[in-house]
Design brief:
The complex is a heterotrimer of chains A (about 270), B (about 270) and C (about 260).
Chain A (H helix, E strand, L loop, with lengths): L2 H29 L2 H6 L9 H10 L1 H35 L1 H14 L4 H11 L7 H30 L5 H7 L4 H38 L6 H10 L3 H34 L1
Helix pairs in contact in A: 3-11, 4-5, 4-7, 4-9, 5-7, 6-7, 6-9, 7-9, 9-10, 9-11, 10-11
Chain B lengths: L1 H8 L1 H26 L3 H4 L3 H9 L10 H36 L1 H16 L6 H8 L2 H26 L3 H9 L4 H37 L6 H9 L5 H29 L9
Helix pairs in contact in B: 4-12, 5-6, 5-8, 5-10, 5-12, 6-8, 7-8, 8-10, 10-11, 10-12, 11-12
Chain C lengths: L10 E13 L5 E13 L3 E5 L6 H8 L7 E6 L4 H6 L3 E4 L11 H11 L4 H14 L15 H14 L4 E5 L7 H18 L2 E6 L2 H7 L2 E6 L4 E7 L14 H13 L4
Parallel strand pairs in C: 3-7, 3-8, 5-6, 6-7
Antiparallel strand pairs in C: 1-2, 1-4, 8-9
Helix pairs in contact in C: 3-4, 3-5, 4-5, 7-8
The chains are: A mainly alpha (about 270), B mainly alpha (about 270), C alpha/beta (about 260).
Chain lengths: ~270, ~270, ~260
């Protein structure tokens, strides 16, 4: 066994071991209440990990219902927003001068804080339906959709326009029309950029969904529960929902990474 | 004709066109709303109405005009957001530096840096308020957390993206580690560093306003919820929306301007 | 077999039985270089010529102390490459100019001098002198992105010369330039070389380029990388473009080309 091989194996082991060790130490500090002393807080506000886990176990049906309420907003909103964003990018590609400036406007709009957006959308959806459930859902859906549009438009536009050198000339030499160029060249070229955009918009959508729940009329969803539980001083339950929110974020991101791997591998092989 | 062509081809023409377009669309809907809704100001007021409320000298709570009130509260919220943003930026930069200096630090921190990107930190705003107990502190803390990771990841990517040849060049000059950082790595990572700040700025604003809505007292968020509940004129609400939008966009523009000042070489001025 | 006894006393770079093996990801050994033995003399212009995969860049990097050979001996001015590097004996020019976007042309040239902690005035004076030598005096305040590829490469050369190295190591410095710019830079390089009297090791895959510039061409062949011929170029100096149409020049080109046959 030579030294080089041993070293590289050691490196890959420590890459997993070190962060794991850090996590274990952190949880140990938490469970042993040393963390509470450091943060100058009590087990009431920062319950022990074991306590949080037992709350999750006891309230599983309720948590599952709220998780569904949140995810059922995130996913359709994400899909809808991404499709709209992509179409806007296609539009901008086809009319470069007008469209490119429009992109700047979209970038500026995406800098508008979600809170302001949520408050306005709440106003606009008041008369959508007499049913509170529908009203709240539509409001949350619109917010998540709007949040995911900008990132898709900006990234997809790059994907549709940053072509390999001479690729466009090749297409021209085939006397290909605008539509053919779009379908055969631009759209396939934009595929990796779609994933780049989703990596930004998936976490952003999760946050947007949680924030929109704060403003919605109907009290439901993981984000809203965190707030309500805190207001009622039920800190353990709030923490249970925080853990749930983290899990939602991580799972969605993991699914995205996995699908990127599958799609890109198929494309590259 | 020539003059017209010059105007149409000018850089600002499209920006003006878009602005006019957006204002027109807003106003069209405002008119529709005006004649179809019972309380149009709740849904979509005319821009002139908002402007009027901004310029109005009528006091709304005995001592302050609407604008004064919004600005005072904005000061409380945004100053804390700004401090948090600066702290987060500094911490993010230092962490990226440490990660680049030490393989061990990188190994420990990198998975968590990835993880924190997937976690909806904003959803944790209420608990941070509960932990710190003070609304001002929690505004700062949450703005710092939200700023911290985009700055750290982007700066690290900037460090890693430095050409291999530049490292070799420094090596051939027998440059010290300190010199390598000061002369090569830190200047090279600046564009990515600014990108991180641009991503973080609107999030920091959102975060601090959101924290406000969780508690009474002073702050843009409190004012926002009060106005929504009908405790004061609805125009306060629209002023806040406008203000936060402007602050969000302005922070983006401002960072861009600082970047241009610090790294003028990024501008393509061929010729 | 290459066995030669070097009687000259002015040896700058001594390479003896240099060999280099890499381990690939599949854990198989790849021999990049084997049995490289040659001496490079003070003030000599030597080209390392060969197709890709022949190890010419590897050899340059070994001299530059960017790589350590797995076997063999190397000395630079009687010292190890590491000592030579620490004494800043090397000026390196890469294929791309590798300029610093955020520094002006002059500041780029001053960079290595700043690292050597030279007084600011000296830095500026020397940078001005170097820029004048490469004909870029008027562009001192420009940023690299405002320059053409050929001009950028000139800045790279000025920067390499600024530290007054004893040896100039050039890794395909002109391969990305068009033919006209390249010819101009060839003449400039020879002029600078004559003026400064540096030892130059020049990596290239262009036969004409190596013949035009060098005192000696070291032909390398791949699989495994090794020296297949060492050819002295006895063309009169100073050389100009016209020399390329002489029978002597074309003779050398043909000789080198034939040494590649069967590879």
């Amino acid at each position: 066994m030579d030294v080089k091989k041993l070293k590289s194996r050691l490196a890959s082991v420590t890459a997993v071991l070190y962060p794991l060790l850090f996590g274990v130490v952190l949880i140990a500090l938490w469970q042993s209440q040393i963390l509470h002393k450091l943060l100058n807080t009590t087990t009431l506000i920062l319950p022990l990990p074991t306590r949080i886990l037992s709350v999750i176990k006891d309230n599983l049906p309720a948590i599952a219902a709220d998780t569904w309420a949140t995810v059922s907003v995130i996913l359709p909103g994400l899909v809808l927003g991404s499709i709209i964003g992509y179409l806007l990018a296609v539009f901008a590609t086809n009319s470069p001068r007008f469209g490119a400036t429009g992109l700047t406007i979209i970038a500026a709009i995406s800098a508008i804080p979600t809170v302001a957006l949520a408050a306005v959308i709440l106003q606009w959806t008041r008369d959508v339906s007499t049913d509170v459930d529908v009203r709240s859902y539509v409001m949350k859906l619109i917010i998540v959709t709007v949040v995911s549009v900008a990132s898709m438009t900006l990234n997809a536009y790059r994907g549709l326009t940053e072509l390999k050198p001479f690729a466009l000339d090749l297409m021209k030499s085939y006397a290909a029309g605008k539509m053919t160029v779009l379908l055969k060249l631009r759209m396939p070229n934009s595929l990796p950029y779609i994933f780049t955009s989703l990596k930004v918009s998936v976490p952003a959508c999760v946050i947007a969904a949680l924030v929109s729940e704060y403003f919605a009329e109907k009290i439901t969803g993981v984000g809203r529960r965190i707030r309500e539980c805190i207001l009622q001083a039920q800190y353990s339950t709030a923490w249970a929902y925080i853990v749930t929110a983290c899990v939602i974020g991580i799972v969605l991101f993991a699914v995205l990474m996995a699908s990127e791997k599958v799609v890109m591998r198929r494309r590259n092989s | 004709m020539k003059v017209l062509k010059r105007i149409i081809n000018s850089k600002y023409f499209m920006v003006v066109l878009w602005t006019v377009l957006i204002v027109t669309i807003w106003e069209i809907f405002a008119f529709i709303v005006q004649y179809t809704k019972r309380t149009p100001v709740n849904v979509l007021p005319h821009l002139s109405g908002i402007l009027e409320s901004i310029l109005s000298t009528k006091t709304i709570n005995g001592s302050q005009t609407a604008l004064q009130m919004v600005l005072v509260n904005a000061g409380a919220t945004l100053s804390r957001a700004g401090i948090g943003f600066l702290i987060g930026t500094a911490l993010g930069f230092v962490l990226a530096l440490l990660m680049n200096l030490s393989g061990t630090v990188e190994k420990v921190a990198f998975p968590y840096l990835m993880l924190i990107q997937m976690i909806p930190v904003l959803g944790m705003a209420p608990i941070i308020l509960a932990l710190t107990g003070d609304i001002g502190t929690s505004r700062t803390v949450i703005a710092a957390i939200l700023t911290f990771y985009p700055v750290a990841t982007n700066t690290l990517a900037g460090f890693k993206g430095v050409q291999k040849e530049k490292h070799e060049l420094m090596y051939s000059y027998a440059a010290s580690k300190f010199q390598v950082y000061v002369k090569t790595l830190i200047p090279a990572c600046l564009p990515s560093f600014f990108t991180g700040m641009k991503i973080a700025a609107p999030m920091a604003v959102t975060a601090s306003i959101l924290v406000d809505t969780l508690q009474g007292g002073i702050g843009l968020g409190c004012l926002l919820s009060q106005s929504l509940k009908g405790a004061m004129t609805r125009y306060v609400f629209w002023q806040i929306v406008l203000l936060s939008a402007i602050v969000g966009i302005l922070s983006f523009v401002l960072i861009g301007a600082i970047e241009k000042k610090v790294c003028p070489y990024n501008q393509k001025t061929k010729g | 077999m290459l066995s030669m006894v070097d009687m000259r006393t002015d040896v700058e770079i001594m390479l003896k039985d240099i060999g280099m093996t890499y381990k690939t990801s599949t854990n198989t050994d790849v021999t990049a270089l084997t049995n490289v033995t040659m001496n490079i003399h003070k003030g000599e212009f030597v080209s390392l010529l060969g197709p890709s995969g022949c190890g010419k860049t590897t050899l340059l990097r070994i001299i530059a102390d960017l790589l350590t050979p797995t076997v063999g001996e190397i000395s630079v001015g009687g010292e190890s490459p590491r000592e030579a590097r620490l004494k800043r004996k090397y000026g390196i020019v890469f294929q791309g100019a590798v300029l610093y976007d955020w520094r002006t042309v002059k500041k780029n040239v001053m960079l290595p001098l700043e690292i050597m902690h030279l007084p600011k005035k000296d830095c500026e004076e020397r940078a001005d002198k170097m820029l004048e030598m490469v004909g870029l005096k008027d562009f001192a305040k420009h940023y690299p992105r405002q320059l053409s590829g050929g001009m950028q490469q000139r800045v790279g050369i000025a920067r390499a010369l600024a530290i007054q190295p004893e040896i100039l190591l050039m890794d395909e410095p002109f391969s990305a330039l068009d033919e006209f710019t390249r010819e101009k830079l060839h003449e400039d390089l020879l002029r600078i070389w004559r003026k400064t009297n540096k030892t130059i090791v020049f990596v290239t895959h262009n036969i004409q380029e190596s013949v035009f510039l060098s005192d000696r061409v070291c032909v390398l062949s791949p699989h495994p990388g090794r020296i297949s011929a060492l050819i002295d170029i006895d063309l009169p100096r100073p050389r100009t473009v016209e020399i390329k149409s002489t029978p002597e020049f074309t003779g050398y080109v043909a000789q080198i080309r034939s040494s590649f046959e069967g590879i």
